[in-house]
Amino acid sequence: MATVKENILKVMSTIPVGVTLVAVSKFHPVESLREAYNVGQRVFGESRVQELVQKSQEMPSDTQWHFIGHLQTNKVRQLLSCNVALIHSVDSLKLLSTIDAEAKRAGKTVDVLLQIHVAREQTKFGFSIEELETLACSADLLLYNNVRVRGIMAMASNIDDDNEIRKEFRCVHETFERIKSTISNNSVFDIVSMGMSDDRNIAIQEGSTMVRVGTAIFGEREY
Ligand SMILES: *Cc1c(COP(=O)(O)O)cnc(C)c1O
pTM for the full model? Predict the structure, then answer.
């Protein structure tokens, strides 16, 4: 079996300049994260608050933590306590305003992405394209002084049809461009987080600037 080190070096070699690799380490032990860290990986993605908090205490302090899972409002305070660098998965205005309020309370500004729902599965969270465009056109996003909306995040359908996956990613990227052109303060609206182990190459071809790769680096997860 290939080691984490071998896997991640292979994945890294396929990531073009300008695309950030988020090593999705959920359900994997800290020893595996260290293997990735030791070959230079600094950005790690976790989907559960408790697990992120725990691992952030055990990993070197220059590790950057991204939160990629569904976030409950009552966990926001705990998440902000460990200097999360980016929250990918903001899927409601209620969550956005909670993050803003908690960030204000903690005296910080938090970078977030708005999650957009394009996949066929109803199980996936996120704003619809229409909701997101309405939100971007209204002044609502400007109300939040302690969050910076850096871009959008999406997951494609979990299917084998590359053409359909490509269509979904293309749609995400077009939505990103339209929103960027409507919002006034758009110089920091620069992240398109899309692409996982199986579809990252298509995502990159379609304009992803950030891929979230777990299995291809750490192997299968044991839940
Ligand atoms: C688990 C997860 C990933 C990583 O998926 P792999 O198929 O293991 O690469 C990426 N994004 C999100 C939102 C996830 O929950």
Answer: 0.97
Distance CA 88, CA 162 (A): 24
Query: Taking 90 as the threshold, does the pLDDT of residue 143 lie above it?
Result: no
- With b for 16 or more beta-carbon neighbours within 10 A and e for fewer, the 35-59 pattern comes to bbbeeebbbbbbbbbeebbebbeeb
pLDDT at 121 over 90: no
The CA distance from 23 to 38, in Å, is: 13
Distance CA 100, CA 17 (A): 32
Q: Which atom of ligand 1 is nearest to the CA of 22?
A: 10
Mutate-to-test residue for ligand 1 from 196, 199, 218, highest number of ligand atoms within 8 A of CB:
196
- Dump pLDDT digits (tens) for 23-41: 999 999 999 999 999 999 9
Q: Which residues lie below 8 Å from residue 218, measured CB to CB, with a gap of 6+? A: 4, 7, 23, 24, 25, 28, 32, 36
- Tokens coding 158: 């979990």
Beta bridge partners of 192: 152
Query: Mapping DSSP to helix (H, G, I), strand (E, B) and coil, where does residue 157 land?
Result: coil
In this structure, which residue's CA is closest to atom 11 in ligand 1?
Answer: 212
Rounded percentage of the chain residues whose pLDDT exceeds 90: 87
- Predicted local distance difference test score (pLDDT) of residue 125: 87
Mention every residue, 6+ apart, whose C-beta is less than 8 A from residue 22.
43, 44, 45, 66, 68, 193, 210, 211, 212, 213
